[in-house]
Structure formats: structure tokens, C-alpha cells
Amino acid sequence: MRVVMLNFIKYNFVRKFFRHMEKYDITLEELKQKQLDGAEVIDVRNKREYEEGHIEGSINVPEYEINEDFKNICQELHENGIKIVLDGVFNHVGRGFYQFQDVLKNRENSRYKDWFHISFDGNSNYNDGLWYEGWEGCYDLVKLNLYNEDVIQHIFSAIKGWVDEFDIDGLRLDVAYCLNHDFLRRLRSFCDSLKPDFFLLGETLHGDYNQIMNDEMLHSVTNYECYKGLYSSFNCMNMFEINHSLLRQFGPENWTLYKGKHLLSFVDNHDVTRVASILNNANHLTLIYTLAFGMPGIPCVYYGSEWGATGRKEDGDPALRVSFDAPIWNDLTTFISKLAVAKKSSNALNYGSFSSIVLTNEQCIFLRQYNDERVLVAINASEHPYFASFNIGTDTCTDLISGSEIKLNNGMELPGYSSFMLRPFS
Question: 3-class SS at 98?
């Protein structure tokens, strides 16, 4: 399963992105912020949208035509073999949310006062004459009471509407680490009843991901632990860092944390500095993507980064979430498309075990194995060639990236700044 996050989609040029995405064999599409023919539907990080009172991720827009446009986009995505995962934020709403405005107006007499965490004995920094809990101290975002049955049914009704009208295939849950576990269990059960293969992905940062990624809650979560290790291993020329995380999560020992599970792997996203800006050496761009596609998990390519778009977190969210008029194709996109084909064609890369074969500060080779299929993922982050010694019982491999036949002699020489996905001849 491949994921590409697109920040903006305009219906009048969405087909350009279909052709672009087809080259990546994309099967899952996350729509985070959407723009249809210039009419903004939901910009989930735009204060104006919060003031209009939408739950983040909602498609409940006033114009019927906008819903029709979005339905057409979803239909065409499905016709192109792409599934749709909407960004759902069920932890908090904006101050303009209708039910919260009713509480501000009617106070203790509001029928919605229990939708939020409110004390009428306090005050807010907006001088509302009441205190309410905001998301992590941000009082532009009002935390919902997910123990309240009316709130839960309001959310479930919205999800059912998205499935019935747009036939969406899943949800990416913003700040899933903030959602109570009882709600997540009910959400999983409800979504399973709508579509048996409905996909739930949770945004989480650190800690034990199994707390919310399990058979009763979410199918997958964001692998932030490996995100840091991916770019830091190249910048510090210390492949031991990412190798340690991968062995801890997926290694051969019985105690490893996430063996057999499929976390979302990424080298950047809408909240962090783009990979082309955070890497110290541009020659490492193709190598970091090889690692992301070769390691256990669901590789995610953030829109624009596949052609090397730049953007730094310290310059603010707009620098990370720009709108592109059309996709760009260059050597990096060609390389990533080959990685996508390799990933799709290999059970070992999708479902295989993980073990470390060769490891130095600047080189790493790990083995993915599923039944009789083996794939060696080899990285040389140095500018100099390196002879990697290993014996896998054969002298010939196919590189799944280039399609070339590779001869082995108790190992192989890795050219500087090179990567391979080697499938041994049986």
C-alpha cells in the first residue's frame, strides 16, 4: 500500500496528478486539504475555516456543487485504482463551531455544554466568562468531550455520510494519541460495520504504538521514531541509529515491538521540514527513499517531495504546504517510481521479516524475507566505493530498482552514493 499526501487538489487539473500518481503505482490517496475549482472546501489549518465552525476533516460544505465536485474526484480516483483516506480531526474543533458558539451564547442553558470540557467558574484568554480545555494549550482549538454520546454520534453520522456519498476508504486521525481508547474501540467497530476493509491510520509521535494500533483500534500509525532515524542517520553518517530502531521494532527476536504490523513510513510530511531541506547532502535523497521503501511499513511520499521540493518548518506551515499548479517529473521522481514498482512486486518487501546483514557508520545492508523470497536492501552513504562482504548462497541477483543482473563474489562493491534492492536468483 503506497500513500501520497496531496495538499491541494483542483478538479480542473486533477487528471494531471492521476497520470503522475499512476507512475508510482499508488493505491492509497490521503486528501488532507482540498481545493476544487478555486472554491475552498476545508483547509484544516486555516483559521477562517475554523471560524466557519467545521470539524476538521469534514466535507459538510454549504454548496451542493462543491460536494458534487468532490464526489466526481472520488469516483475518478477509484476508477484509477486509488483509494481515498480523509483527514479526520475528532479531538477538537474551532471556536466558530456552531455548538461551541451556542455554549458561549446560552452558557449553562446550552444543550451542547457537555460537548466540551467547560467550567463556568473560570475564564478564557478570550474573556468568554467561562473556561474550556483547548488542544495542548491552544485555545483556538476547543477540545471535544469524546465520552459524550451526542458528540460520538455526531462524528459517526459524518463518517457514514462520507462513506455513503463519497465512498471514502478510510480516515487518517489527527492527533490520535489524544483520543481516548474507548472512543477508538467504538470508532473501529463502527467503521468495520460500514466497510470491512475501511482503513484507520493514527497520527502518533512516540511511546508504545501498540497502545492504539491493535485489532480493536487502529490498523496503522505514523512511525515518527524511524522518521528521525532516517534523516539523522545520513546527516550524522551513523547508520547504526536507523538500524537500531528497525531492529527494535521489527527485528528477529521474539520481543520486538511491531513485527508483522505495517506502520506508516515517511521521510517528511506536512508538519516537518521537507527532506530535501533537512538532508545535509543532496546525494542522499535517493538513498533515504530506498530505506523508506525497503524497511518494513507503508512508505509515504509527501506531495512535491518526489521531485525535491524544499520547505523548512521554521518558516511556518505555509512553507510546507504550498499549492503546485502541476506535478514535476525529474530524475528523483523517476527513481522513486522504480522503488514503488519494486515494492509492489515483492512480497518480501511488503510482508517480510527484517534482519541486519552488514552495518557500518556509512553503509548498511538488511534482509527482508517472506517464505522463499529474499530481498537485500543495500545502502552506501559514502562518496567512496565500499566492498560489502556477505554470502547468501548464490552468486547472482536482480536489482529490483534498475532491473539489472548483479554478480556477487562473497559480497559486492557498492559504488559511492548508491542503493540496491537485490533479489537472489533461486
Answer: helix
